[in-house]
Amino acid sequence: MLEKLLADLKVTEGEELLVMSNGAGATTLMELYLVFRRVAQVLQARKIKLVRSAIGEFITTQEQAGFQMMIMRTVAGKPAHSITTSKPCPLVISGACTPVSE
What we know:
Layout: H1 2-9, E1 16-23, H2 29-45, E2 49-56, E3 67-73
Parallel strand pairs: 1-2
Antiparallel strand pairs: 1-3
């Protein structure tokens, strides 16, 4: 899934991305964290910087299995922490959840 998203957006080495993983309802947080760990590994191998992440259930359907993944580029001059979620990300991988100061 990630490879297709990166190809579709034509993401190149050195870019900064925000990643959001949304559990559909029946997918556990542990499963979402496992997916996110792999996402972080792939991005690191491709020398793409993960500057912000959100992992959890933000939009769900009753007991639906699976997840959605969104990737977003950062905007030059805009801090990555301007993207907010109602839940903090408790999993830190290479500073992916560290707030960026202006």
